[in-house]
Amino acid sequence: MQIILDKVNYLYSSGTAYEKHAIKDTSVVINKGEFIGLIGHTGSGKSTLIQLMNGLIKPTNGNIYFNGEDIYGQGYNMKELRSKVGLVFQYPEHQLFETTIFKDVIFGPNNLGVSKVECELRAYKALAAVGIDESLFEASPFELSGGQKRRVAIAGVLAMEPEVLILDEPTAGLDPQGRDDILEQINTLHKESGITIILISHRMEDIARFAKRVLVMNKGKIEVDGLTKDVYSNTGQLEKMELDAPLITYIIKKLKEMGYDMPSDIITIEEAKREILKIIRSRK
Question: Does residue 6 fall inside a structural domain?
């Protein structure tokens, strides 16, 4: 699996007084099995970029390839693309509509013409992957908690059996426990199935915990593309784009200034805890 954007541009309201250049001459390669964080301030182009990736919107110019094929080439099966590149928008639970959880999850693959038995197998598998117990399958999705609704909505996309799962702020509006549950399940899914994950989040700590690679968008362009540790360690570069690294990054920087021997690439609380305990033990 591979997605390639080659010198892509996208203009909203092209040719009008409201024209906006949302994506500017952007090129990027997404490879199979990656867990990528996509960050940037509001209006930087993140949501537009992911809609381009699964063909929801067409670039003003430039090319987009999925597994080596131009998705706007003659005869290309756009419906299949959208089943392979699954997109979960913010507050996906607003799209739940069926009378039961199971029916809601089956809807997507059924729409693709998948057999009844295969639809049911996919639904069981997808609901299990997001931690929804079988005892809830016949419940109304509207009786669930916010976190459960979010998981059912994600299961509906997983039932399409995508090769890529793109999530736009999947934890928005959830309490801390609900947020952690969703992210842990996404991470487990990634590890067990090898599915490619692209995660948009304004919470730098969440990206630090799970993503190995980060794309930083600024004014319609991918300004930075690199390993998460490298990107977050360069706090000055992020601050120029009105972004902050995870708080722990600044704490580690302060400890180093105070004379503590700490690695510069610590970006998670777990990593910081290990290093601080090492220092404490060495001084006993």
Answer: no
